[in-house]
Design goal:
mainly alpha; Helicase, Ruva Protein, domain 3; 14 helices; Chromosomal Replication Initiator Protein Dnaa, Chain: A; 5% strand; single chain
Length: 293
């Protein structure tokens, strides 16, 4: 007897899944599709159940809540048969770490960022089409403290998700694909904490960072605060702009300017690192899952 999970049926259902993905791409638009739908992969399909794999637990929960019913309805219409649709999270693949430096070698933000840059270039040579922008590498370096093995695994996960989805790595997709890994190390930092830290360091009031003043003694701290906010909270440029009473283009300019100066001006780089150090305990390991730090 031929079962419903035979290769022939799975191949025919793969065509149904491709049609559903095409419909979702047209309806959702490029960015939501690239972040949420493109990384999904068909695992199995029979007459009773369809299993779709997501990149991680956060993506699984978000896709099921936002698009689960829509995907189920589209699959039913395209195949002519209603089935239960389960979204699952496959185990994280383990990769060997090649020539990873000792932990002490990546104890500072600058060393972590440099390590990630070197490894990303090497991976780009090894895997056609894989590329990661410096904004993503800075975010990873800022949020994963001094663990070379985890830094490398973060890049491996990005490469895996990018290849599976056929989509490039962006700042937004990286945060989704690395959500579990980042959350393990994260101490949630707020924009208000960043503002207070920067204000104290430069002898200002937090309101000065939100003012319309163009005095140099306020402009530079404001730009540093916007840059630290982007790195340590992952907020979008429109969100950062709203927190500092500016538009998104001003926030984008400030972040890009500070990122450039951090690479060419040792004094600015030191200032940025001190701000990050005061906001985060770089020696802390991952949080335990039972709520204890």
């Amino acid at each position: 007897m031929t079962t419903s999970s035979s290769p022939q049926k799975k191949n025919s259902f793969a065509d149904v899944w491709r049609r559903v993905r095409s419909i979702l791409a047209a309806e959702l638009g490029e960015r939501p599709y690239a972040i949420w739908i493109a990384p999904l992969a068909l695992v199995t399909a029979d007459d009773a159940r369809i299993v779709i794999a997501c990149a991680n637990e956060d993506a699984r929960d978000a896709v099921a809540e936002r698009y689960g019913q829509k995907i189920a309805d589209l699959l039913a219409r395209q195949s002519g048969l209603e089935r239960a649709v389960d979204f699952v999270c496959p185990p994280t693949p383990h990769h060997a770490v090649v020539a990873a430096p000792q932990e002490s070698e990546v104890s500072s933000f600058e060393l972590r960022f440099a390590f990630l840059q070197r490894r990303a270039v090497r991976m780009g040579h090894e895997r056609a089409g894989f590329a990661v922008g410096d904004d993503v590498l800075r975010m990873i370096a800022a949020r994963i403290p001094k663990d070379a093995r985890v830094l490398e695994q973060a890049l491996e996960r990005l490469a895996h998700c990018s290849a599976a989805s056929g989509e490039p790595v962006t700042f937004e997709s990286a945060q989704i694909w690395l959500a579990e890994m980042l959350r393990a190390y994260d101490r949630r930092i707020t924009v208000d904490e960043v503002k207070r830290c920067v204000s104290r360091r430069y002898g200002l009031k937090t309101g000065d960072l939100e003012s319309r003043s163009r005095r140099s003694e306020i402009v530079r701290p404001r730009q540093l605060a916007m840059y630290a906010t982007r790195l340590l909270t992952g907020k979008s440029f429109p969100d950062i702009g709203r927190h500092f009473d500016r538009d998104h283009t001003t926030a984008l300019y400030a972040v890009e300017k500070m990122a450039s100066l951090a690479l060419t001006n040792p004094e600015i780089a030191a200032e940025i690192d001190e701000i990050k150090r005061s906001l985060r305990d770089w020696t802390a390991g991952p949080k335990s899952t039972d709520g204890r730090n």
